[in-house]
Here is the input.
Amino acid sequence: MLTLILCAILLAPPCIQALDLPDLPDLPAYHGDLAEFDNLLHLPSGEGPDRMVLGDNNGRIHIYEARDGGSYTEVWVSEYLEGSVGGVFVVDINDDELDEIVAYTDQGRIYYLDIMDYTLIWSNSPNEYKRITSLTIGDIDDDEQPELVFCADGRLIVYDGRDQYEQWRSDQTDLTAHQILIGDVDGDGEDEIVLNDGYIFDARFFDLEWQSPEPFGERMGLLDLDEDQVLEVIGEFQGRYLRIFDIDLRREKSLSR
Ligand SMILES: [Ca+2]
Ligand SMILES: [Ca+2]
Ligand SMILES: [Ca+2]
Ligand SMILES: [Ca+2]
Here is the structure.
């Protein structure tokens, strides 16, 4: 019996892995989970050794290549990018069927880099935004290219990824989210933009659907935990404590029986 229970536990799908995390080296748990970092990503594997992109606090992007024995070595470093790097992405941002490296900084700069030779393809103008607190990328409308969705200077901004212009900006000027997710969190078949500071916007028409009286945590994930085919927001507070929010019911889920 005990063996059966142990097998069931071992074979149970690990829930957290269901969140869309990049594949990073399989290190022992005490090395920390690098896949959780916004500023460290594997580049798609090609012919050569495994490569990683890392954005640092001092405004530089680094490329590391795998060497024997599980080590990595730096093979390229960028010029200074204005501000601390807030996040890096690998995505076909300009709809030419080739992935780019996309990075943003806390001082309002966005950069596209070539994924093979790391040359700068595009950056926004230095004075367009003073501060970006969070940025994500997703295709939220009918055109085929992805949009950059970010909080800049207190507003939520939707920015065309290929043609690089502001498609929309919120009337709200007090938005300072540090994480943004895109997903259908109320089961109506349309995506919402979820800000960790408690705002839910319709991703298509940008109506403010709900302003939660409290934030959803410093870090969030989306998962359906109650089989109603609606994703819940799982919010992490102080780096560990979890609370679960039913956005369709506009309340924190009660987990007590
Ligand atoms: Ca591209
Ligand atoms: Ca689009
Ligand atoms: Ca929805
Ligand atoms: Ca659910």
